[in-house]
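[Discussion] Sanity-checking designs against the backbone

I'm trying to build intuition for which residues belong where. Below is a C-alpha cell string of 500 positions. I'd appreciate it if someone posts a full sequence so I can compare it with mine line by line.
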C-alpha cells in the first residue's frame, strides 16, 4: 500500500513540475530614455527610479537630444497593464546620492506596456517641475514602425489658447478634420526655470508605398483663420534632416510663439543642432529687435516709430504692477515705477552714453495681468535725432536688457507700375492736358505703410507742362515719411505733334 501511495506522490510531483519545465522563456525588451534640459549641461546627471528599473549614478552618454539612460531586459507586459516605472532626473554629485535641490523633473510615470518584445523603444522627456498626469504624461514615445516628429512649442507669454492645435496634411497617422478645426495634439511636456509650461507632441507618419518619408506638414494655430497662425509650414522631412531615414527615426522641430498671424518660420528651429538658438530666443529675457513680416508687411519688435515715440516689445510677459493687489503704491506711483524701467541714451562712443533723454510717459495695456508691449513717449525737447544713434535700456529690478534703437533712415519708395523703364508719356500738342494722362503711381514706406495720398508735385521747374510747345517736360513727385525722409521721383511728359 505504501508503494502505491509513494508512486502516486511521485506522479503528482511530475504533473506539477512539468509545466515549469516546458514554460516559454519570458519576452523582454530595451527602453532608452532621452532627456533634455534647457541648459544642455548633463554633468553629474543621474536618476532616481522605482517600480522595477535601477537608478543611474550618471547617464549612459549624451546624444543629439540630450542625456540618455538605457534599461535592458525589461519584461514585456500586456497593453492593458497599468503598472509604471517611476523616473526622476536629478543631479548626483557623488554618483550615488541625489541632490534634491537640483532635480530636473517631477515624477515621470512611464507605462511598463511601452516596452516591446526584442525591440528598443525610445522615450523623450524634457525638463520640468510637474508630475505625470492623465492629461500630461510628460513623456513621448517614438513609434519604430513609422517616422516620428517631436514638436515642441513654447509661448513666452504663457497664454496657450484653449483651441490651440495644428492643421496638418500629407500622411500623418492622425490628421485634422478641416480648416479652423485644430487637431489638439499638445500636452504639457515640461516647464521653464520660472515655472512656465512648455508644450510638446510626438507625431507619426507611415512610409509611402515606395518606403519613403511622406510629404507630411503642419502649421500651429488656434482655429480662427490666418490671423491665428503661429507658424508657417512645418514639415516632417525638414525635421528629420537630409539623407535617408530608417523607420523609427525621430525628427525635431522647436517653435516659440512670436505672436499671431505668423506666416514665416523665423520662430521655427529644426534639429537638435539648432536647439541653443531656439532656447536663446524662447527662454532668455531680452528686447526683441525690429522685424517686418515679409508677407503681411506688419512691423514688430523694438524701434522708434517717430522721433518722440519708441515701440518696445519684450521676449517674455512681465507681471503688470497695476494688478498687484498687495502693492501699497497709488496708480500714479505705479505708472511712475513702470516709466522708471526705461531709459534712452545717445551713443557717444564705445560703451559710453550721453545723459538719459526725458520720458514724458510710458503707455501699456493697463488692464492686462501681464504685459510685453510698451510705448515710450519722449518729452518735448528730447526727441531723437536721426543723425545720431541711441540705446534703450530696460531694468525692472528683476530683468535687465538693452538694445540699440532702430531709427527710420529709409525713405519711402515711389513706383510707376504702368510705365516703362524710360518713364515717358506722350501727350498731344496743341490740346488741353487731360488729367487721365497723369501716370498711376504708388508710394510705400517700410514703417508708415501706404503714403500714396501724401505724394505731391513740388513747385519749381519740374512742375510745368505746356502742350503748346513741343518737347520733354520732366515732372517731379515728392513724398516724406514721419521721420522726414524725403523721396523724389521724376517722369517725363513728351509733347509731340501728330503726324501729317
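Best answer:
Here's mine. Compare freely.
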Amino acid at each position: 500500500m505504501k508503494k502505491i501511495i509513494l508512486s502516486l506522490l511521485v506522479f503528482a510531483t511530475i504533473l506539477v513540475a512539468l509545466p515549469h519545465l516546458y514554460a516559454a522563456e519570458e519576452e523582454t525588451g530595451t527602453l532608452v530614455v532621452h532627456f533634455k534640459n534647457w541648459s544642455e549641461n548633463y554633468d553629474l546627471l543621474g536618476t532616481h527610479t522605482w517600480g522595477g528599473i535601477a537608478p543611474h549614478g550618471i547617464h549612459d552618454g549624451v546624444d543629439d537630444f540630450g542625456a540618455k539612460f538605457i534599461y535592458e531586459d525589461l519584461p514585456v507586459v500586456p497593453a492593458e497593464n497599468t503598472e509604471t516605472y517611476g523616473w526622476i532626473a536629478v543631479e548626483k554629485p557623488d554618483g550615488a546620492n541625489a541632490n534634491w535641490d537640483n532635480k530636473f523633473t517631477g515624477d515621470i510615470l512611464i507605462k511598463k506596456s511601452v516596452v516591446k518584445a526584442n525591440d528598443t523603444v525610445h522615450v523623450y522627456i524634457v525638463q520640468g517641475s510637474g508630475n505625470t498626469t492623465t492629461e500630461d504624461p510628460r513623456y513621448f514615445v517614438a513609434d519604430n514602425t513609422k517616422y516620428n516628429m517631436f514638436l515642441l512649442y513654447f509661448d513666452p507669454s504663457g497664454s496657450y489658447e484653449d483651441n490651440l492645435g495644428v492643421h496638418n496634411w500629407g500622411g500623418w497617422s492622425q490628421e485634422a478634420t478641416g480648416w479652423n478645426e485644430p487637431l489638439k495634439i499638445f500636452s504639457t511636456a515640461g516647464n521653464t526655470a520660472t515655472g512656465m509650461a512648455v508644450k510638446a507632441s510626438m507625431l507619426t507618419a507611415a512610409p509611402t508605398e515606395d518606403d519613403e518619408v511622406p510629404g507630411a506638414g503642419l502649421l500651429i494655430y488656434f482655429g480662427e483663420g490666418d490671423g491665428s497662425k503661429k507658424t508657417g509650414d512645418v514639415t516632417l522631412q525638414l525635421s528629420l534632416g537630409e539623407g535617408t531615414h530608417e523607420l523609427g527615426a525621430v525628427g525635431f522641430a522647436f517653435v516659440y510663439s512670436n505672436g499671431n498671424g505668423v506666416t514665416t518660420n523665423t520662430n521655427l528651429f529644426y534639429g537638435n543642432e539648432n536647439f541653443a538658438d531656439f532656447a536663446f530666443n524662447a527662454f532668455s529675457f531680452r528686447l526683441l529687435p525690429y522685424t517686418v513680416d515679409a508677407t503681411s508687411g506688419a512691423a514688430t519688435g523694438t524701434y522708434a516709430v517717430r522721433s518722440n515715440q519708441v515701440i518696445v516689445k519684450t521676449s517674455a510677459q512681465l507681471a503688470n504692477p497695476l494688478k498687484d493687489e498687495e502693492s501699497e503704491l497709488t496708480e500714479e506711483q505705479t505708472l511712475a515705477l513702470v516709466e522708471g524701467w526705461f531709459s534712452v541714451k545717445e551713443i557717444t562712443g564705445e560703451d559710453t552714453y550721453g545723459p538719459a533723454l526725458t520720458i514724458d510717459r510710458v503707455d501699456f495695456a493697463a488692464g492686462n495681468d501681464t504685459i510685453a508691449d510698451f510705448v515710450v513717449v519722449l518729452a518735448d525737447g528730447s526727441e531723437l535725432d536721426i543723425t545720431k544713434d541711441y540705446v534703450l535700456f530696460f531694468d525692472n529690478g528683476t530683468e535687465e536688457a538693452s538694445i540699440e534703437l532702430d531709427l527710420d533712415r529709409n525713405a519711402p519708395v515711389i513706383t510707376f507700375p504702368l510705365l516703362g523703364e524710360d518713364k515717358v508719356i506722350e501727350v498731344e500738342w496743341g490740346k488741353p492736358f487731360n488729367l487721365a494722362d497723369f501716370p498711376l503711381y504708388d508710394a510705400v514706406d517700410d514703417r508708415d505703410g501706404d503714403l500714396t495720398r501724401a505724394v505731391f508735385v513740388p513747385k519749381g521747374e519740374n512742375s510745368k507742362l505746356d502742350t503748346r510747345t513741343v518737347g520733354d517736360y520732366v515732372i517731379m513727385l515728392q513724398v516724406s515719411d514721419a521721420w522726414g525722409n524725403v523721396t523724389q521721383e521724376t517722369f517725363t511728359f513728351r509733347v509731340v505733334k501728330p503726324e501729317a
